[in-house]
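queue> holo job accepted (S-adenosylmethionine)
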Amino acid sequence: MAGSRLDLIAPEAPALLIGARADSDLSGFDPASTTIVQAMRTDHDALAARGFALVPTLADLSRNAPAPRSAVVFLPRARALARARIAAAAAALPAGAFLWIDGQKTDGIDSMLKELRGLAPVDDVQSRAHGKIFRVTVPGGGWLPADWTATDMELPGGFVTRPGVFSADGVDPASELLAAHLPAKMPTRVVDLGAGWGWLAAQVLARPGVEALHLVEADADALACARRNVADARARFHWADATSFTLPEPVNGVVMNPPFHDGRAADPKLGARFIRAAAGLLTGAGRLWMVANRHLPYEAALAEHFADVAEIGGDNRFKIISATGARRAAPARPRLRRR
Ligand SMILES: C[S@@+](CC[C@H](N)C(=O)[O-])C[C@H]1O[C@@H](n2cnc3c(N)ncnc32)[C@H](O)[C@@H]1O
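queue> job finished
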């Protein structure tokens, strides 16, 4: 695959890949002796379909994976998550094993190379396609700073988040604005599409009326936080792609603050697919409440899938939309997205 650096290395089997994506060139890896950690449901399912063994989170590693003899970390942009992936890979490897780090310049591969050079033997540095791949020989003992290991972060209000999840450092201002525009009484059956670590869902459940709330989230790490943050018997948790999510019975409320990035690139089509999915979940009399960045062009998708659409609030950054009269379309087929 154009731009891949993985053909430059020859990791020893069994290999552990942390953060490989659906579009990663894994042709050099034997699915029978490769375990991949991937939290995003879309990437996870696409890689599983290619025959690889997968676990959704780093915490699942020790339980399910065979002891690896080498590892590759795919560097994410979020610094804390990058460090957590490296710490998890290092903890899974024996002393003397090789750990490769692969990443783009824009995701901080150069500063990570510099940092690791101060901590362990690093060699075999290769550059290609606006990025680098390099090899770390894992030293024995505790060679990484203790704070590289992923730990839960505690936010005001008792919420917990983890490195790399959406808005890990605090409540997202768009979700906050949406919550301020929800009605005093909510419908009985509600879905939160792209529920993240659960803040918006908690606001929904704090209002009277809700009998069941489905939290749908593709990021297993975020959903694990949501399970802790929304300790309520009415909550149901779904590790799923919202754009193809269905329920046996329609609901009468959907809330959402949809993602509009597919990896690094802005992709408003992703939000449009969330709108379509929301319409597919609702009864005709049910209602959608959503927030979006003001510049995002969702009007056509809303008009296509709802008979009655209104902007009920907002500011110069965000718009709050309420829509009813869902026109149900056939459920979308799952699509791949970048983290
Ligand atoms: C803008 S955030 C909103 C999070 C949460 N509702 C809040 O209030 O903080 C969008 C969320 O959608 C999730 N997401 C992205 N693509 C998804 C997909 N295809 N299916 C389900 N969730 C997805 C992201 O992981 C992220 O948590």
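queue> The mean pLDDT is 93.
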